[in-house]
Specification:
Elements: E1 2-5, H1 11-30, E2 33-37, H2 42-50, E3 61-65, E4 67-69, H3 79-86, H4 108-118, E5 125-129, E6 153-157, E7 164-168, H5 170-175, E8 178-183, H6 189-197, E9 214-217
Parallel strand pairs: 1-9, 2-3, 2-5, 5-8, 8-9
Antiparallel strand pairs: 4-7, 6-7
Helix pairs in contact: 1-2
The chain binds 6-phosphogluconic acid.
Length: 226
């Protein structure tokens, strides 16, 4: 596990640089890269900064999502809508390279199965956020999805509105080549401490699944790591 503590006003820029570096390395090594995005509010500024970084051959990047809310892709709660506005609309990323989770499908099981069939065996760069309860993607504390070892995507019900979501499962997080976790604000300090310092207990702190990744924290989110 690596942690970088970055001033709040620089974390989006640094996150964009770390994501860009990992994408370029994957493209250089294998000719292509897969990028899975987190939702929520924290990563938006990082995606906007990523859109301004030169030297990424977006035609060689396939984009996925770590989770999605069961809303239409134009809904204000849609993670796809956020990424579309912050990033996809600003870079030369072929539409065919964008793999949206069709979480608005009333048949959530069918949507989960369709999406897991699209996911690569190993995501090159997985971006995650964490919640104040320690969740990541849409894997919330106590969720039965935390016991999943075969399926890659499951329908879940979470306490963070909107409740109905589709989420990647623990094996997908564990298999990622590079995992970049973004956390800012004092409200994340306790879950960050639990995820990085306590004995691993993913049922209490699902974000511990990413403990071997690169954690980009502002001083407030890192405050309990000392
Ligand atoms: C989602 C996210 C979720 C998010 C955390 C942090 O769809 O809600 O994927 O895992 O990353 O809840 O959200 P904030 O960045 O808004 O604090």
């Amino acid at each position: 596990m690596t942690t970088e503590v970055v001033p709040s006003n620089e974390i989006a820029k640094v996150a964009a640089e770390r994501i860009a570096d990992a994408l370029k390395a994957a493209i250089s090594a294998s000719g292509s890269a897969s990028l899975a995005l987190a939702g929520g509010t924290t990563p938006r500024a990082a995606y906007e900064a990523l859109a301004n970084i030169w030297g990424i051959d977006w035609s060689k990047v396939s984009v996925y999502f770590g989770d999605e809310r069961a809303v239409p892709p134009t809904h204000p709660d849609s993670n796809f809508a956020m990424a579309q506005a912050a990033l996809f609309s600003k870079v030369k990323l072929p539409e065919a390279n964008i793999h949206r989770i069709e979480a608005e499908n009333p048949d959530q099981e069918a949507a989960a199965r369709a999406y897991e069939a699209l996911l690569p065996a190993r995501i090159s760069v997985l971006v995650l956020g964490i919640g104040e309860d320690g969740h990541t993607a849409s894997l919330f504390p106590g969720s039965p999805a935390l016991n999943e070892r075969t399926r890659k995507v499951l329908p879940v019900i979470g306490p963070k509105p909107p409740p109905q979501r589709l989420s990647i499962t623990p094996p997908v997080i564990e298999a990622a080549a590079v995992c970049i976790v973004l956390a800012t604000g004092a409200g994340k300090a306790e879950p960050v401490r639990r995820a990085l310092k306590d004995a691993l207990d993913i049922h209490t702190t699902p974000s511990g699944l990413a403990r071997n990744g690169l954690w980009l924290l502002d001083p407030a989110a890192a405050a309990l790591l000392v």
